[in-house]
């Protein structure tokens, strides 16, 4: 009996020491160090590419020489880039396609996430699995699109629909997470008791409360769609070339520093798009308590 007591006390002592270790300064330093290491791994290639875009020459992959804007002039259409064209049209076309796909993701993904969270119905788990099924590689979805819609798969509309389908799981999952953090039934009943119709309740109460998930999903969907390569490569047929194809076709023909400038332009556009989406989302959503 006393042995059991000593074992229990020893176990509690070990647990207490582990708790102190986890909550102590050592654990904090380890976590911060890991975060800094991961951030460094992510940021170094981006910063390196951005710096290289302003270099006059390169020694292998390392930028050298004086600072110059010639690479940016070339990429922005003030010079030659590989096949005598600028990156601007491709970026603009990809931004348009990504925006169209993102809008479709919001229109379709938010109601799906709401239904999967709010209601218990037959085969809900199956439908939830189907909703994230497009997480398959883009090349697989591209082959399916070509087989199903051979005439329209490579058009602008086909690319928009394909991007929306390919990125829809990100919207559904992020918005679903927001819905799961709130009591949807109580919100609905409170709004309906004040005389609001169900559509008004959904649009002015439910959706604004999920704005963080919607904004996060929109950012993910837009940034991934704007540079989607696998699906685009499989289905693209005619018309303006999306940015991912333009970069792929010219990366071997243009100097490395000009390619770095083209990628840097995309990075800046992504930063601008994220900022705009956050501002529009935060200002566009409002609840009755905010008014």
Indicate the percent of residues in helices.
over 70%
Biggest β-sheet description: 2 strands, antiparallel
Unreliably modeled segments: 2-11
* CATH-defined architecture of the largest domain: Orthogonal Bundle
Mean pLDDT: 78
Describe the oligomeric state of these chains in a short phrase: single chain
The structural class is mainly alpha
> What is the number of domains?
2
Query: Helix count?
Result: 13
Note the run of SSEs as H and E: HHEEHHHHHHHHHHH
Shape: globular
Instruction: Give the strand line-up of the largest sheet.
Output: 1-2
Distance between the termini: 66 Å
Please report the first level of CATH classification, the CATH class of the largest domain. Answer: Mainly Alpha
Brief write-up:
With 291 residues, this protein is mainly alpha-helical.
